[in-house]
Task: structure prediction
Amino acid sequence: MIPLEITAHLRGPITGAPMLDGLLAFVVAARAGLVAGFGPLEQVEIPIAMEPEGRFHMCSSPIVSWDQRELRYINRKFPLHEAQLLGDARLRRVQLSAGATKSYRIPGEVAWAERDVIRWYAIADADAVREILLVVTHLGKRRAVGRGAIERWEVEPCESWGEGFPVVHDGKPVRPLPADYPGLHEPSLAYSTLSFPYYQHERETLCAVP
Amino acid sequence: MFDLKAYEVLLEAVTPIAHHSESFGNHAVIARRKTRLPSGEWTSIPAVSGDALRHGLREASAYAFLDAAGMLDAGLLTESALRLLFSGGMVTGRGDAANIKLDAYREMVDLVPPLALLGGCASNRVIPGRVVCEDAMLVCEESQHLVPTWIVERAGKLVGARGHIDTHQRVRMDATLDPGKRKLLSESAVKRHEGGDRKSEQAHEDDDPVLRQEAKSTMMPRTFEAIAAGSLLSWRVQATCLSALDVDTFHSMIAAFLSNARVGGKRGTGFGFVRAVAANEVAVLRPASAMNAVDITTLGPRIGELFRAHVKERAERARAWLTEVDA
Result:
């Protein structure tokens, strides 16, 4: 395990950049046939070093500046045409303005990363990380409709910035950390999840956050 | 098996595409994608959204599934089944959110294979999909840095995006203005319309805008933008396949969709018919430059055997399951 700089070169806008450990765990879990949210939570091994107390992995949050944003919409309407063709006799009324068959148009934002680049730092096994990232072609939310498309990945050894690499820089956290983590200087505190899966908000604790 | 199947497809608009993002007054504008140019400047390029194309895949695969299961002519689907197959279902809030069984998920994707790839919601949980369907971007001067090189070469001379946009006008006529059709009105309706005509004439003489508004006909001119016929679009679609059935289902849905692909609105008057001109299979797990040309237009007759046999074998169970599904 060595200090690494991992760079995603995007070819379009994205909605939210993920944590690197969560991303790797997602691929490893998918390869193992696990489906998020189904069945008991299983232990997933990823090629990033754990911190000595085993609470989180030694990788930074995504480091990115956003330079443009755009509002897009998700439209949905009940398949009325198919209901007329294929619906059974009990399907007698479809209400499009309320209830389960209501149509909707939900706004959501996409953003462009400055120079189309998102970066992470980690102490990890470079070859293993490269091998996993090979199948990651899209990042963030709404990947299913092509958001967060990746042009290419770069996984390169880098110089450590010294004390705290890659989770503390100049006394500030570079990822959610336990509030008492050594090396922090007057960090901002907020509730956050320390390790993947990050969608489990019930596991949130008071953390020092970037 | 863990295979990433990806295709880059060159689509051609056989008829104009009226895929609109919104309307201003009586004018509908085409959907565009904000795009960064190599110079750092920003522009908007017409595109067919990934959502619309993904819905096209879902709809085509749902019809292919119902056909294979012998349910297409029966009229048997419940509201939940319709919503699940054609819109991806919804989280209904019923059921126990704390108790999700993986075997129930496996049964569902075994009975309805497209759900394994496209995902959806059933009962109390969102089922993640494995298909990524990108926007189909207009091939033009502004998009050439984003479009695969082979598509740019195939497209030949490129012009600016504006050159591909046409404005159409339609008018909803007021049938009562036609003397021939007016003869079909009932006596009371004729009286009512004659009163309206007098009101209109009076408004004109008095130059009364309020009265004129009240008495005006129901004729409505409206305009809309459309991508011109013959325009080319670059589309990429991919799926993570975990079995041979996944691969065949993925191919079946692409072939079913492209066999009669329609996108956008105004389909009743022939708009939005697109066809695949060429496609490349992208080998994601090998160097990105390694691509194999495939004839995606002829995928149809040769694929889908495994998918159809799988669905047919489980048709009775699928039918029973769909009558009870909560989605």
Summary: Chain A touches chain B through 45 residues (CB under 8 Å).
